[in-house]
Amino acid sequence: VNSKHTPYAGHLAIIGLGPGSRDLVVPRAIQMLVECDLVVGYRLYIEQIRDLVEGKEIHVSELTHEVERATLAVLHARAGRRVCVVSSGDAGIYGMAGLVLDILSQVQEETFGSPSATSAEKRPEPLVEIVPGISALNAVAALLGAPLMHDFAVISLSDLLTPWQTIAHRLSAAAAADFVVVLYNPTSRKRHWQLGEAQRLLLESRPATTPVGLVRNAYREGQQVWFTTLDHLLDDDVDMFTTIVIGNSCTRVQQGRMITPRGYERHVSQVHEVREGTKHDSV
Ligand code: SAH
């Protein structure tokens, strides 16, 4: 099939809006928003881009209505419209991308498998594009310093869709393997004990003094950046707008910045040489 000549039924863009501020939304996502007919998303994220989608059809929904939102987007795109589904951060990281693709393939299978489907229903499928965004981990790492310079594991503490047993297993494995650990969804109004349990599991293979960086509302109003240690993780108020970075055995906090060294200080002597003028190759 020559894709240039394939008539698509519609366009389905799944975009991430970054952590919050407009200058951290990638230009391609803005272009998709400007070009689309219809925008689907959670109320808070729509508010963030309201000025860009003035006059368009907008389907706002509440946080827990993801399936409804994704299905609506798929059906409209298959009906020939240009649809944007918006997520915060990156749509493919605990965002809407997986669900939308899942529902799209389910609808496609049902249509093509059904002998009674009309030819209109069997029209060419929408062009799907997933636009990458700046995830909380990129935003948070930048505000903390350089904590993700070495291998890291990202774990969501939300056990709404994942059994706690699986999450606990991953926490223990990541801690034992000395990964830097990034925690998404640390708590919510309905989930209180998970962070304490995560702390307990991490302390089984990490020292109490392990540095921890926290960021609430990165690049949004009310941004807060602070540091603590693993044993004091529960001393501060951590809410659902916070992302937590737990250091590995080499991570340190120095002059207000969290740093996980890439190697083992190999460069320290070179810095001295350059400063003292004893190193003369191109710098
Ligand atoms: N798709 C999003 C993540 C959604 S899960 C992304 O890629 O960033 C929601 C969790 O993301 C929150 O509980 C919080 O841990 C984190 N998060 C999202 N935006 C954030 C921000 N601006 N500052 C700090 N944490 C954030």
Supply the key terms.
disordered N terminus, about 280 residues, single chain, alpha/beta, 8 helices, five-stranded mixed β-sheet, binds S-adenosyl-L-homocysteine, 13 strands, five-stranded parallel β-sheet
What can be said about this structure in brief?
The chain is 30% helix and 22% strand. It has helices spanning 27-35, 43-48, 66-78, 97-113, 136-144, 164-176, 194-203, 268-275; strands at residues 11-16, 38-42, 57-61, 82-87, 127-131, 145-146, 152-156, 180-184, 211-216, 224-229, 242-246, 252-254, 257-259. Bound molecules: S-adenosyl-L-homocysteine.
* Residue-averaged pLDDT: 91
Query: What is the CA-based Rg, rounded?
Result: 23 Å
Label the overall shape: globular
- Describe the largest sheet: 5 strands, parallel
How do the SSEs run, as a string of H and E? EHEHEHEHEHEEHEHEEEEEH
Total count of strands = 13
Uncertain regions: pLDDT < 50 for 5+ in a row? 1-5
Q: How is this structure best described in words?
A:
- It is globular, with a radius of gyration of 23 Å.
- The protein starts with 10 loop residues before the first strand and ends in an 8-residue tail after the last helix.
- It is 30% helix and 22% strand.
- The strands form 3 sheets. A 5-stranded parallel beta sheet has the order 3-2-4-1-5, sandwiched between helices. Strands 7-8-11-9-10 form a 5-stranded mixed beta sheet, sandwiched between helices. Strands 6-13-12 form a 3-stranded mixed beta sheet.
- The relative contact order is 0.13.
- The chain is an alpha/beta fold and 283 residues long.
- Strand 2 (38-42), helix 2 (43-48) and strand 3 form a beta-alpha-beta unit.
- Bound molecules: S-adenosyl-L-homocysteine.
- S-adenosyl-L-homocysteine binds at residues 19-20, 87-90, 93-95, 135-136, 139-140, 184-185, 215, 217-220, 240-243.
